[in-house]
Amino acid sequence: MAWWYLIFGALGTCAFFFIRFARTDRGKEVIHPIALKLPIFGKIIQKVAVARFTRTLGTMLSSGVPILEALLICSRTAGNKVVERDVQQARIAISEGKSMVEPLSESDVFPPMVVQMIAVGESTGALDAMLNKIAEFYEDEVDTAVAGMKQLIEPIMILVLGVIVGALVIAMYLPIFKMGTVIG
After folding, report:
1. What would the CATH number be for the domain defined by 37-137?
2. Measured between alpha carbons, how far is 101 from 82 in angstroms, rounded to an integer?
3. How confident is the model at residue 78 (pLDDT cuts 50, 70, 90)?
4. What is the CA angle 22-16-3, rounded to 5?
């Protein structure tokens, strides 16, 4: 137990280097795919990325920005390297005269519903409106998921605080009870 400060120092050092690695491009390429596969948070991260991408692209297209420039900007603002890579592939496909739907359908990030809605938006010429509808849907999905998680976290926090308070009470009264048995 005399080495407890070394354990905390090692944990702090590991956390420092992990955060520093996570901020590099190589770190993002390693961590972002893993983050998308996390059990509970992965779906939320995916929905946030899709909502951010579709909202930004829809706004830019409705403002008159050319689609290749808009995709370049949206790929950088996606906040996830996997989404950035997939959007760049869609940008390359569009520059070659193909549809944006083909590379997005091969992606693991974009659900089939999103790809189909983008295809409908491309075919009808109302891509910006369709992207904004997708963004609204996924923003609502994220809000619902976060509200559900918040309801799950509250009982867990109460349980954790109860255990901590119980441990403190036991730690305070145990010496008193031991003293009573020694005297009595």
Report:
1. 1.20.81.30
2. 16
3. confident
4. 145
